[in-house]
Design goal:
elongated
Length: 403
């Protein structure tokens, strides 16, 4: 099997090496963000590979859809960390890294020699990032965590009760993805600090704490004060009245926000009866009568088809949008104009569709998307880069360290 070429040196993180020992979504997505910004990401996998290689539709074995969408622009090395040789190679690989990202729970990481103290003693400039479900400083620390567990604990699932009447998970692995964004900027911050001090440091990014902070941005509300000045929960969004509105033939997202936008809407629909009513035309009135206002809005929007609303509102500077299905996104005119969707040719798997990025730099280009690596495609190239001899590689193979 031919090795995956190292990503071309473009992007603000070009020249930096990241070693990833993580699986599922949180750690791999963090490292995919770093790879998109130019870092050389070496993904260390067990002999059976990341579990997501076997999740979702696939044309070739080991290249499931969930793996493809979270592991672009990486190289894959197979190491059996249950062997002494496999652990030794990983340690030698981390010696060459600027960043090490892992998602192994702390007790297991210590058994593998992956604790920060041991690795930083060998590589003082290492930025060591542990992504986990919970902080080790609390009683949940040793527990396993997946997105559903964190949505439940963080209050996010209970928030859905205002819509469904019972707790429900958001139909997206939101906790994994939001925590991955936090981990990415935390790593970038540690690299900036390293440029000043010359020293690396340990960075812990945990899902529960990240999601509670995320949810609290608006929902701490009355409990932002001590003693509280009201209950928790930002009513304008924590209500079943907040929803896409039915039109005569579909749905419309509609969000007049300022007083002027509300007044203009009621002018467009000829509702002179509410133009002098402060419940509709003032912010304080709308906050005190959320359900009334949104219900009235829903009645008006149901009177016309979506296309007519688009034509009426297009130049009125009132926030609105038609409600897309996931399939609609593939042909969205804005995404088409920005070149968001890209197509990659995979020699073994045919054409692949990949999303672009919402980030652009004026001088540093985002790295071109590269096909995620086949399992272990780069093992021997990376071992050669580390200076291992043929005899050493043979011994590792005999030990089972390379899978």
């Amino acid at each position: 099997m031919s090795p995956q070429p190292a990503p071309s040196p473009s992007g603000p993180l070009a020249g930096l090496r990241v070693v990833e020992s993580a699986s599922i979504v949180l750690g791999p997505l963090t490292c995919q963000y770093l790879a998109a910004m130019g870092a050389d990401v070496i993904k260390v996998e067990p002999p059976e590979g990341d579990l997501t290689r076997r999740i979702g539709p696939r044309r070739t074995e080991g290249m499931g859809a969930l793996f493809l969408t979270n592991n672009r622009n990486k190289r894959s090395v197979v190491l059996n960390l249950k062997t002494a040789g496999g652990r030794d190679v990983l340690h030698r690989l981390v010696d060459t890294a600027d960043v090490f990202v892992h998602s192994v729970r702390t007790a297991a990481a210590r058994r593998l020699g992956l604790e920060y103290e041991a690795l930083s003693a060998r590589n003082p400039g290492l930025v060591f990032c542990h992504v986990a479900g919970f902080s080790d400083h609390g009683p949940y620390g040793p527990k396993p965590a997946y997105d559903d567990i964190v949505q439940a604990l963080s209050g996010l699932a209970m928030l859905q009760r205002v819509v469904t009447g019972e707790p429900r998970y958001v139909p997206s692995i939101l906790a994994d993805k939001i925590t991955a964004v936090h981990a990415t900027f935390a790593i970038a911050a540690a690299l900036v600090e390293r440029a000043r001090s010359g020293l690396g440091q340990a960075v812990d990014v945990t899902m529960l704490e990240t999601m509670v902070a995320f949810t609290s941005a608006e929902h701490l509300w009355g409990h932002a004060f001590e003693p509280p000045l009201g209950s928790m929960g930002y009513e304008p969004v924590a209500t079943a009245a907040r929803r896409p509105f039915r039109t005569a033939d579909g749905y419309l997202a509609f969000m007049p926000y300022s007083d002027a936008q509300w007044v203009r809407f009621f002018e467009i629909v000829g509702r002179d009866d509410v133009l002098a009513d402060p419940r509709y035309t003032t912010l304080a009135g709308r906050q005190q009568n959320v359900a009334l206002v949104w219900d009235e809005l829903g009645i008006e929007l149901a009177k016309r088809p979506t296309a007519e609303w688009v034509e009426l509102l297009e130049n009125e500077d009132i926030p609105f949008a038609q409600v897309n299905s996931l399939e609609d996104l593939l042909d969205d005119p804005h995404l088409a104009a920005t070149g968001f969707w890209q197509t990659l040719g995979d020699p073994a798997g045919g054409l692949l569709r990949v999303p672009g990025s919402g980030t652009a730099f004026s001088r540093s280009e985002i790295a071109p998307a590269a096909v995620p690596p086949r399992l272990g495609a780069d093992t021997h190239a990376v071992l050669d880069d580390l200076g291992l001899t043929a005899d050493e590689v043979g011994a590792l193979t005999a030990e089972g360290a390379l899978g």
